[in-house]
Design a protein that fits this description.
This protein is of the alpha/beta class. The chain has helices at about 5, 20-30, 150-155, 160-165, 170-190, 205-215, 230-235, 245-255, 275-285, 300-310, 335-345, 350-355, 365-370, 390-410, 450-460, 460-465, 500-505, 535-550; strands at about 65-75, 85-95, 95-100, 110-115, 115-120, 125-130, 190-200, 220-225, 260-265, 290-295, 325-330, 345-350, 375, 485-490, 515-520, 520-525, 530. Strands 1, 2, 3, 4, 5, 14, 15, 16 and 17 form a nine-stranded mixed beta sheet that branches. The protein binds zinc ion.
Length: about 550
């Protein structure tokens, strides 16, 4: 049976009972005639396919090329057509977007054929620890801190193993290769901007290695100058110059704002009030954003309350401001949230990691209830992928599981969630009028379920705002730099497209990321990163991994 057929809209099935004449009649009625609606048809094979190279010298001053005929989703609703076209072109000159719209005249500019593709801004990750790339998947079962339960999740834990065992043995060359490899991997995934929360500053050489790798990756990045992991607890890492090395780093690496990498000051508040006092003051003196992990498992709730009242730090004179970027924000008080909103601080949520590693409930419903929105962060690949499609789907689905349950439960208890061990409707469940007695109208104070455009906004322009980069990236607005991804919508996991934002968020993954452009320069072309010697980098990363495990005295057990 077919619901659409039964309701009088005949559909074409594999062994269609419809005759050809019936099909043509239906097709004509729906405008689906031969030659029409072939937007997402595969491109015809071209004789010169092997000469189908990326535009020459892309990103260079004066070089122009046009991305032709894709479904364009600019993520800028102020543009004509709300910034969305089923078929349009993007004209790039040098590192900037010159124009976006249908049938652009591009003179003799080079062309990228984007028929059957979706063209949108690159993704922006506002919190990622790239130095951990060598340790990928090691902590796939672990939580944040050993809880003493003896469960598998407590055997290998983030605090004890990653921060206190592995991180302290890193050499500058280990920092470099992990940072580079992790960055290239995300470029391959369409993530054109990252905030790298490097907590591996055992010496100025370690810091320089991390920064060099961010520049060498060739994507947009905020270098987050955080602590020397483990130093405060173990009393080791004698070369550690955090936070007082910040002015040297800023001066040496970040005196220009016209480059792909900029600097953020790490201001962790769980390192003690003296460290907060020093790091926040240095960061603010240098005019940098100050970022910090804020989560209740590390005892931060009262610290955050003091900061919200302007009484943080050892002199009780540090307060939060619009220059803060807070990561996680799980388990914080009402007052802290109100202060975050009042001052206009940025919030980055790592949905999958927070769900997995016991950070606490990602605070999305609270943010939406207050009229706020987050950016997205991948956090650590020791436990979960840094893939951004996973980010968007996790954000959307976590929010939906919570609000859907709040709505279903609303007639029974003022949106108090039921005992999470037993989410069944109570025996005495209150019913509502209408044909579906257990399908209440959503209460006014429950945010609507997130839609695909919402999480796309989190993944792009919200990330740009969170890193103070909205003047440069986050949307395909003419005048911004060209950070563009071209997604293959003819691939078997996506075709046929019936909704462009939906196809990207609900169906796509890394293999659909066909072309990646950063500041006008093509970095991935037809599925392959350009100018990257992967076999050599793999060798270096493997050697680094072997050193780190050996030095830390940890056995490599692939089937632990
Ligand atoms: Zn983190």
């Amino acid at each position: 049976m077919c619901w659409l057929c039964d309701s009088g809209k005949p559909q074409l099935h594999g062994n269609s009972q419809l005759g050809r004449r019936d099909f043509l009649k239906t097709a004509a009625a729906t405008g689906l005639t031969a030659g029409g609606l072939n937007l997402f048809a595969a491109r015809p094979a071209r004789a010169d396919d092997d000469r189908d190279d990326p535009p020459e010298d892309s990103g260079r001053r004066g070089r122009r090329y046009v991305i032709r005929g894709g479904a364009v989703m600019t993520m800028d609703p102020r543009m004509p057509n709300k910034g969305e076209w089923t078929q349009a072109d993007v004209l790039v000159a040098g590192k900037k977007i010159l124009a976006v719209g249908p049938n652009l005249h591009a003179g003799g500019a080079g062309e990228i054929d984007a028929r059957g593709r979706i063209v949108m801004p690159g993704f922006i990750d506002t919190h990622h620890h790239q130095f951990e790339t060598a340790l990928r998947s090691y902590l796939a079962d672990g939580v944040l801190i050993n809880d003493g339960s003896g469960s598998r999740a407590s055997e290998r834990t983030y605090f004890e193993r990653i921060l206190l065992t592995f991180a302290p043995v890193y050499r500058p060359e280990d920092v470099y290769i992990s940072e580079l490899f992790g960055g290239l991997a995300q470029l391959d995934d369409g993530v054109t901007t990252v905030h790298d929360v490097s907590q591996i500053h055992h010496s100025p050489q370690h810091s320089d290695a991390a920064i060099q790798a961010l520049f060498d990756t060739g994507r947009r990045a905020a270098f987050g100058f955080f602590e020397s992991a483990g130093a405060a607890i173990l009393g080791t890492n004698p070369g550690n110059q955090y936070p007082q090395d910040a002015p040297r780093i800023k001066q040496q690496w970040f005196s220009s704002s016209d480059q792909l990498v900029h600097m953020i000051m790490g201001g962790e508040v769980y390192l003690g009030d003296a460290s907060t006092e020093q790091s926040w003051k240095i960061g603010r003196q240098l005019g940098l954003q100050v970022a910090a992990h804020i989560l209740s498992p590390f005892g931060i709730r009262p610290i955050m309350d003091a900061l919200a009242q302007g009484q943080g730090g050892s002199n009780h004179d540090i307060g939060i401001g619009a220059d803060n970027l807070f990561i996680h924000m799980t388990g914080m008080s009402d007052d802290a949230w109100k202060a975050v909103q009042r001052v206009g601080a940025q919030v980055s949520i790592a949905f999958p990691i927070e769900m997995n590693m016991r950070h606490g409930m990602p605070p999305i419903v609270r943010m939406l209830s207050m009229g706020m929105e987050p950016s997205l962060s991948t956090d650590v690949e020791v436990t979960l992928t840094a893939d951004f499609f996973t980010q968007m789907r996790s954000a959307m689905n976590l929010q939906r599981v919570v609000v859907n349950q709040m709505i279903l439960d609303s007639p029974n208890g003022n949106q108090n969630l039921p005992d999470p061990r037993n989410w069944e409707l109570p025996q005495t469940a209150v019913t509502v009028p209408g044909p579906f007695p257990y399908w209440p109208t959503p209460p006014a104070d429950v945010p609507p379920p997130l839609a695909t455009r919402d999480v796309l906004r989190y993944a792009t322009i919200n990330g740009a705002k969170a890193l103070r980069l909205e003047g440069k990236t986050g949307t395909l607005t003419p005048g911004k730099e060209a950070d563009i991804i071209i997604l293959d919508a003819t691939a078997p996991n996506v075709f046929p497209v019936n909704n462009v934002p939906g196809a990207v968020v609900s169906l796509m993954e890394r293999t659909n990321v066909e072309t990646v452009i950063v500041a006008g320069k093509v970095r991935k072309w037809k599925g392959r990163l350009l100018g990257v010697d992967l076999p050599r980098l793999r060798q270096q990363l493997e050697a680094s991994r072997d050193f780190i495990f050996a030095k830390a005295g940890v056995a490599q057990e692939l089937f632990h």
